[in-house]
Amino acid sequence: MRTLIVGGTLLTPQDSLPDHALVIERGRILGIEPGRPRAGAQDQVIDAHGMWVAPGLIDIHVHGALGHDPMQANQAAIHGMARFFAQHGVTSYLPTTLAATPAQTLAAVQSVAECPQPADGAQHLGVHIEGPYLNPEHRGAQPVEHLRDPDPDEYRAWLETGAVRLVTIAPERPGALEFIDLAVAQGVEFAIGHSGASYEQVVLAAEHGLRQATHTFNGMLGLNHRLPGTVGGVLTDDRIYAQVIADGVHLHPAVVKLIHRAKGVARTILITDAISPTGLPDGEYQLTGLMITLKDGVSRTSAGGLAGSTLTLEAGVRNAMQFAGVSLNQALTMATWAPAEAMGWSGKGRLAPGADADIILLDEALNVQSTIVAGRVVHPRPTP
Ligand SMILES: [Zn+2]
Ligand SMILES: [Zn+2]
Predict the structure, then answer these.
(1) Do residues 334 and 356 both lie within one domain?
(2) How close is the Cα of 50 to the center of ligand 2, in Å?
């Protein structure tokens, strides 16, 4: 049985193809055809007339939703997050940790490693470890008591799970470059974040294989015209992809535009950094090791600092268009193709023959109307 998505405008995302059909078989995109291909009696046909058909969104930095958090280290939490993300167009993501004790961190990594993919949500493609190897002076909401130097015994145990895909690190911490050398050789990506690295230290980390920056500008040493600092290194080293929280709170809209001007759509990655109260009403919430207050959707610690976001990636795409003045194709590129390229996921983030059938349908107002993961409609949930 094949699935045909017909009548819509495909955004590959580099190109726009009006009135083209996507042909899907066994979880993969079989082909792209103009017009309306003939459907067999067994084929499922999805009418996308008046809609944009785009690759599923990819969120490589997200801590939770609807009260669920990977630090809870259980399958129900991961599957709960996955359902919420799929409702907002995300088809794959990296559950992201917060600095915690060695036992809590390892338990979170192991739970992702052992978690089967959900039947009705976004797929987890491994784990993003954000902390504990961060700089306390740029900790943001990361619990300071859990920040530490890279420990080979600890990180070897993470790597043994096979689930680690991305690590946010302050490369100026003693032992960080040794960790980067070891793990990059095993296919792990590194992002500089919660860091006070000098420009020179950023370039050195890139020499060792670091290729991303975590929530650029937030939680890192800023830019001075005589001391370019962490931000100056991130914006000018063309090897580095810049993660951006486009919620209008973490960064002034003009700074989103500036990052896009420096890095281009191919090196700018939209993330949410969303935390577990995302999707819940304003109030007080207990995260693992952290109390936060949610007011008007903005999450803050008791000290008043920002603590992650409540952004959805579908809203992030709309915001990026407005803030950076880019087209829908370009904003989608930053939430699909760019993260897939940064992570080395060649079958994701694009509509092309052979790619995974992770697809979203957007209406004219750019709201997600349907989400398809590995060829199966997961949102809206099919009526039994
Ligand atoms: Zn952070
Ligand atoms: Zn984060």
Answers:
(1) no
(2) 36
What is the domain range of residue 35? Answer: 2-54+351-379
Buried b / exposed e over 160-176, threshold 16 CB at 10 Å, is: ebebbbbbbbbbbbeeb
Residues 327 and 259 in one domain: yes
Q: What is the pLDDT of residues 86-117, one digit of tens each?
A: 999 999 999 999 999 999 999 999 999 999 99
pLDDT score, position 376: 96
Same domain (yes/no): 356, 250: no
Same domain, 46 and 68: no
157 in Cβ contact with 103 (< 8 Å): no
User: Ligand 1: distance of its center to the CA of 254 in Å?
Assistant: 21
**Same domain membership, residue 301 and residue 169:** yes
**For 40-79, b where at least 16 C-beta lie within 10 A, e where not — what string?**
eeeeebbebeebbbbbbbbbbbbbbbbbbbbbbbeeebbb
CATH assignment of the domain containing 172: 3.20.20.140
Predicted local distance difference test score (pLDDT) of residue 384 = 60
Quick check: pTM over 0.90? yes
Which residues are catalytically annotated?
Answer: 273
Q: Nearest bound ligand to CA 135?
A: 1
In terms of domains, do 43 and 143 share one? no
Q: Both 9 and 116 in a single domain?
A: no
Same domain for 73 and 44 = no
The reply to whether 384 falls in a domain is: no
How much distance in Å is there from the Cα of 309 to the middle of ligand 2? 9
pLDDT tens by residue, 297-339: 999 998 899 999 999 999 999 999 999 999 999 999 999 999 9
Spatial distance between the Cα atoms of 103 and 111, rounded to a whole number of angstroms: 12
| Closest ligand, as measured to the CA of 271 | 2
**Cα 61 to ligand 2 centre (Å):** 6
Ligand showing the shortest atom-to-Cα distance for residue 142: 1
